[in-house]
Write a structure and sequence with these properties.
Layout (H helix, E strand, L loop, with lengths): L3 H15 L3 E2 L2 E9 L2 E6 L4 E5 L4 E5 L7 E6 L5 E6 L5 E5 L15 H9 L6 H5 L10 H11 L12 H20 L38 E5 L2 E5 L6
Antiparallel strand pairs: 1-2, 2-3, 3-4, 4-8, 5-7, 6-7, 9-10
Helix pairs in contact: 1-5, 4-5
This protein binds a DNA duplex (16 and 16 nucleotides) through loops.
Length: about 240
DNA sequence: CAATCGTCCTGCGGGC
DNA sequence: TGCCCGCAGGACGATT
């Protein structure tokens, strides 16, 4: 499912393809990502916003499939296909774009991260990392991988975290998201980049949907947190 | 403030 | 073989 690295990949690719083109008579001046949203900005200040949710795809000059929900036609004859098997994804046109997301995961500084955590001391760490108002861009896959890399179990209360653990979580937010972007994201379920290609990062997953820890071989534990499946290694994470 | 539950939707896999 | 059932999950609103 598209999280920050997947949307970032699509954004980077579309930037190259569609800036300067016209859509319904409006000139495209930028393509951005905010949290998990992909935003196409027009010269008149309006924007077209997409959320791909679980199974959405945005494919440039693709071809129509049974999951194609909308085809955007640019002034030069090129097209953008919005496909979505489960119809959770959406797009909308807005006169101006504003949001109330938290700081971007790749931009947040450690001081800010720590002070924000203090306000959530009675929450479990994994749902906090997935809270877009706390920090923007992280979903179920990457929160699980980040916590594995930090050696912290997903159900740990924030107030129980030691300074060193907070530091490791912070460092791995940056490290894992950057590595995933480098590999053009993770193709679980339906994710494809804007060229219709799969992301490579799936093969680097250590715990997400794994039976066995990819580091030590211990059987992975699976629990439900906030209605979402969470995977962790009882040996590598404490 | 925190946690849980229902809601949207449909492909897929398991069971019989 | 084919049908039915339940699961997966991002975000949001309602409830406890």
């Amino acid at each position: 499912m598209p999280e920050l690295p997947e949307v970032e990949t699509i954004k980077n690719q579309l930037k190259e393809k569609i800036i300067g083109k016209k859509l319904d008579g409006r000139r495209i001046i930028d393509v951005r990502r905010r949290a998990k949203l992909l935003i196409i900005d027009f010269k008149d200040g309006s924007s077209l916003i997409f959320h791909l949710k679980l199974t959405g795809q945005l494919i440039f000059n693709g071809k129509e499939t049974k999951f194609t929900r909308k085809i955007f036609n640019f002034g030069d004859g090129t097209k953008l296909f919005f496909n979505d098997a489960r119809k959770f994804g959406w797009f909308k046109f807005v006169k101006s774009f504003k949001d109330d997301f938290g700081p971007e995961a790749l931009q947040i500084r450690r001081r800010d991260f720590r002070s924000r955590l203090r306000k959530r001391s009675n929450s479990k760490i994994k749902p906090v990392l997935m809270d877009q108002k706390f920090i923007a861009g992280i979903g179920n896959i990457y929160s699980g991988e980040i916590l594995f890399a930090a050696g912290v179990r997903p159900m740990r209360l924030v107030k129980s975290l030691k300074e060193q653990e907070i530091k490791k979580i912070f460092q791995n937010i940056k490290k894992i998201l950057k590595a995933a972007i480098k590999h053009k994201g993770s193709s679980v379920e339906y994710y494809l980049d804007s060229h219709g290609k799969k992301g490579d990062y799936t093969k680097y997953h250590k715990v997400y949907q794994k039976q066995i820890c990819q580091k030590c071989g211990t059987k992975i534990n699976r629990i439900k947190l906030a209605g979402r499946s969470s995977h962790y290694c009882p040996r590598c994470q404490s």
